[in-house]
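Sample pair:
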Amino acid sequence: MSHQDAVNQSNAAEAAQEPAVTPESIIDQLRVLRAQIPNYVQLPVSEAKKLHVVAHLNPNLAEAAIHTVGASARVEATVGRSAEELLLANEMAARWTRVRDELKATLDGVSSAVLTMKHDFGQSVLLTYAVSKKLVKVREHADLLPYVAMMRNANRLGRSRKAQSSPEEPTPET
C-alpha cells in the first residue's frame, strides 16, 4: 500500500467518524448559544433607534464619567455603580462587540455560501431548460414537450416586462 493510499484511507476513516454538519444541527446550536447570551433580545427598529444615541457616546465622555464616579462618593451613590463596575460594564460591552462582529462575519460567509449554492442550482436549472429545448426538436424526445412548456411559462429570464403584462391599457376618451 502506498503512502498516498494510506493517507486517503485515513482521511476517509476520519470523515466517517466525524458527525455530518447539517443546517438543522447548526440552527439547534445557534438556539442553544442564543439562550446563553446575556440581555439577548429582539428589539423593534423604533426601540433600537431610541437606544442607539446613548449606547454610542463619545469614549472620552465615558472615560471622564468613570473617573468622576471614582473621585466622588456622592456621584457614585447617585449613579448606583462604582467606577470599577462601570469599567467592567464598558469592558464587557467591548468584548460582546467583538462577538457581534464575528457573528456578522459568519453571517456574511453563510450568505455567500447560500448565494453560491443557489447560483450552482440555478445554472443546472438553466442548463436543463436549454438542453430540453434542443431535445424536444427531435421526435424521440417529444415526451419532454410538457416539461419544456412548464419551464417556458415559469422562466422569467429573457422576457421583457411588456411581454409579461398583456392587459391592454384603456384609451382616454376625448
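The mean pLDDT is 89.
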